[in-house]
């Protein structure tokens, strides 16, 4: 068995994971890209509104996919390209969650997938201030030209996985699971009638209430820290937040307490200030990873960079990346 896998990347129309509007798929054989495909699509019916914030990020508009097939018409072909491969994604919990939620609302069954997360594998392979895809792609020697283009992002993810294999001398991707001790997991097949994911439950509740996305609530004006719940001991160890110590700064698309609860549900410990135990700082208020180089930082972020200079390994995560990890929606205003 050689260094074979399939890398994927989804872009979504709105804050619901089950609203894919494009997907890039990259086939790798013996450590080389041998095939690639971009599918543009309409999200599943009833969940196909386009949030302006999402459009601003990836540039896919309703008009661009108006004549495209829906996810349910694309899925079989996409799944056939993946075949029995290991699925690799940057923040795999999100991309596999997109497939699951889109299948649920499309009322379609889906297979099991073995998958690997290049966020987690990158943490064990590079020492970076941020493990956002552009930062890691640069470190791996495959710099991104057009971030949030699904095919470009999938290609970068594939390049990162290839470089990580080179760093650790892996003859196949599965060797990294033993060498690095994390980053790999599996999702069970989905059968119609199975319990649906939390993301789908939330989206159905929003729809039933007559709202396409949650409205910007009063708490967003000045976030309250709230309590720090115990981490879920039964969470998936392959989740990118499992075992991390997380601190929040700025406004997110969900309340600070909800953010802490969701982080704890993924197996993270949370705190209200940056300490020697901190491993992840989540920054709201529209922060993106590129702000680390532009100087647009909160006081907590500056404290993190000081601690990094003194040898403490802390990762800075944007609002969007965190919401992808735990599920949630962008604020209604942009």
TrEMBL record:
Residues 4-170 form the Exonuclease domain. Residues 204-240 are annotated as: Disordered. Residues 204-214 have a biased composition (Polar residues). InterPro entries: BRCT_dom_sf, Ribonucl_H, RNaseH-like_sf, RNaseH_sf. This is DNA polymerase III subunit epsilon.
